[in-house]
UniProtKB/TrEMBL annotation:
Gene3D superfamilies: 3.40.50.2300. Keywords: Signal. Belongs to the leucine-binding protein family. It comes from Thauera aromatica K172. This is ABC transporter substrate binding protein. Residues 25-375 form the Leucine-binding protein domain. Pfam families: Peripla_BP_6.
């Protein structure tokens, strides 16, 4: 039976961390949901920011003095745009960061472009932000939908060789992230030559409370594999509702971008549904390196709980901003800071031994390895009783979109925009 993950979401006020306004060299304005169903991501992001600032302070005297402000987006694009404008005009923010919803990120990205202020995405994942909607002031430091779906396509190609699965369905939230995830999966299937019969695509609204009609429709379609881009509380709600039916006795469910997030592992309890295939943008138990263990343990000491992947995303964003400032100088203009971030190499908790994350100059997307696995018993991170394991690990170079694909998608987007009245 799936356990409930109970989170309090009190009214959120502005959070300020790092240097005081009078002492800071650079102000960073971050936006996360801190109330509602996605509030855990805001809480963990703030904790990740604090860890990054502590690690930077422990390095050396050349570390830039950052003032980091955090406001609640309420998961609304229009509200986040107003926050971003205030950060720039009132607080003189030189960087924007954060966001969980890709729809919110698209709106704030336009503010960054118009104001020539760098935006560092730390959580949202739509690949359109770094391909079709790319501009020089946008960067992302967590896996995007293309990377995750490329890893998923590799995993399912290998699984097909072993089991011969043929029928596939997809269910994702009916906004940019869900639709782009499906397109990215199809693109990678085509690249790898994976043949399958599509038996349905399903598009519930974001924060849908009742998935029963979708679960019934999926069971009627009788897929061998269901791939989902549902995330956070939506994915947990879907799992809980599907577990009351025969769904998991008839099909396998895969979530390659958010399915192994720690909050999901907690919600699965001691008896998870069989056959789950999962991955996430950071894992507490992979890679088993000193750096990842140190990050997870430091978070646990500070917060009394284990992190969701949002924490490592926000941590990475602050490290990237500090590295760019150190390279270009605190007085550098935005264009010089853009140049400093392009190609930037960052040693992060999710990097296996021998690999260092880096930012692709052509897309401004961080390039990382990814592990996909199954849900297995593991009580090392209580209150979770299960974690992802039985890993299949994929090289970063095999997960990047080909330059030709990037050019093609950008050209198509320009053509579509040009044809609009």
């Amino acid at each position: 039976m799936l356990a409930a993950l109970v989170l309090s979401t009190p009214a959120a006020a502005r959070v300020e961390v790092g240097s005081a306004a009078a002492e800071a060299e650079v102000t960073v304005g971050c936006m996360f949901p801190m109330t509602g169903r996605a509030a855990i991501y805001g809480r963990d992001s703030i904790a990740g920011i604090r860890l990054a600032l502590a690690d930077l302070a422990a390095q050396d005297a050349s570390t830039p003095r950052l003032r980091v402000l955090v406001e609640d987006t309420r998961s609304k694009a229009s509200y986040a745009v107003r926050i971003a404008e205030d950060f720039i005009a009132r607080d003189q923010a030189r960087f924007l960061c954060g966001m969980v919803s890709s729809g919110v990120a698209h709106a704030v990205s336009q503010v960054a472009l118009e104001r020539k202020v760098i935006l560092v995405g730390t959580d949202h994942a739509s690949s359109r932000l770094t391909i079709e909607a790319f501009h020089k002031y946008y960067f992302r430091v967590s896996n995007d939908s293309y990377i995750s779906m490329a890893a998923g396509a590799h995993y399912l190609a290998e699984l097909q060789q072993r089991t011969g699965w043929k029928r596939l369905a997809f269910i994702g939230p009916d906004y940019d992230y869900g639709h782009v995830s499906w397109n990215d999966l199809k693109s990678n299937f085509e690249r790898l030559g994976v043949r399958f019969e599509l038996v349905g695509t399903f598009w519930p609204k974001l924060y849908e409370p009742d998935y029963s009609a979708y679960i019934d429709a999926l069971m009627q379609a009788a897929p061998d594999i269901v791939v989902t881009a549902l995330w956070g509380g939506d994915f947990i709600a879907f799992l809980k509702q599907a577990a009351t039916t025969d769904f998991f006795r008839k099909t396998r469910l895969a979530n390659f971008d958010t399915g192994a997030n720690y909050e999901v592992m907690v919600a699965l309890g001691e008896r998870p549904p069989p056959g789950l295939i999962v991955s996430a943008r950071h894992h507490n138990n992979w890679p088993d390196t000193e750096r990842n263990r140190r990050f997870v343990e430091a978070f646990h000491r500070a917060e009394g709980r284990y992190p969701t992947y949002a924490a490592q995303g926000a941590y990475s964003g602050i490290l990237a901003i500090a590295a760019a400032i150190r390279k270009a100088g605190a007085r550098a203009d935005s264009d010089a800071l853009v140049a400093a971030m392009e190609g930037l190499r960052l040693e992060l908790p999710e990097d296996p031994e021998g690999f260092t994350s880096w930012i692709d100059p052509d897309t401004h997307q961080i390039v990382q390895m990814q592990a996909v696995g199954e849900v297995v018993p593991d009580a090392s991170f209580p209150p979770a009783r299960v974690m992802a394991g039985k890993w299949r690990v994929y090289r970063a170079e095999d997960l990047m979109p080909a330059p030709a694909l990037v050019r093609e998608r950008r050209a198509q987007a320009r053509g579509t925009a040009a044809s609009l009245p």
